[in-house]
């Protein structure tokens, strides 16, 4: 069985977050969804658990970072093309996200990111396969 990754993120308003990520094209697993949390399907073995803040706090004694002042993580996802990078970020912007940084084009690698409604940073990047060899 392949290792799966479950990234847990605190959110202020679960319905608003689901609506936002649905606009980006993501789906959710109803088996792991209730009023406290949902499981967003990012890939075959990649999932993001969106947890309302009080529920998130039940898993840790640490404070939830204020994402307007600090970053707890940058979630980076690969894309199949530069166009796919732009498409995802443009969908995020249309759904209410902001872009904290400009696009980065280093020739072999192209990336751009957004900050979601709860301030979490998402980066998407395309790497030219011929540059990897």
Provide an overview of this structure.
The chain has 133 residues and is an alpha/beta fold. The chain is globular. A four-stranded mixed beta sheet has the order 1-4-3-2. A four-stranded mixed beta sheet has the order 5-8-7-6. The protein has helices at 14-23, 53-57, 82-94, 129-132, and strands at 5-11, 27-29, 37-43, 46-52, 74-78, 104-105, 109-115, 121-127. The mean pLDDT is 95. 19% of the residues are buried. The chain has two domains: 1-62, Roll (2,3-Dihydroxybiphenyl 1,2-Dioxygenase, domain 1), CATH 3.10.180.10; 65-133, 2,3-Dihydroxybiphenyl 1,2-Dioxygenase, domain 1 (Roll). The chain starts with a strand and ends with a helix. Pfam families: Ble-like_N. InterPro entries: Glyas_Bleomycin-R_OHBP_Dase, Glyoxy/Ble-like_N. This is VOC family protein.
Task: Summarize this entry quickly.
With 133 residues, the chain is an alpha/beta fold.
Structure keywords:
single chain; 133 residues; alpha/beta; 2,3-Dihydroxybiphenyl 1,2-Dioxygenase, domain 1; four-stranded mixed sheet; 4 helices; globular; VOC family protein; Glyas_Bleomycin-R_OHBP_Dase; Glyoxy/Ble-like_N
Shape: globular
The level of helicity is 10-25%
Classified in CATH, the superfamily of the largest domain is 2,3-Dihydroxybiphenyl 1,2-Dioxygenase, domain 1
Overall tally of domains:
2
- Whole-number average pLDDT? 95
What's the main sheet like? 4 strands, mixed
CATH fold field value of the largest domain = 2,3-Dihydroxybiphenyl 1,2-Dioxygenase, domain 1
Counting helices, strands and paired strands, the structural category is alpha/beta
What is the gyration radius calculated from CA atoms?
15 Å
**Which residues form runs of ≥5 with pLDDT under 50?**
none
What is the number of beta strands? 8
Put simply, the count of helices is 4
Pfam families: Ble-like_N
Protein name: VOC family protein
Organism: Rhodocytophaga rosea
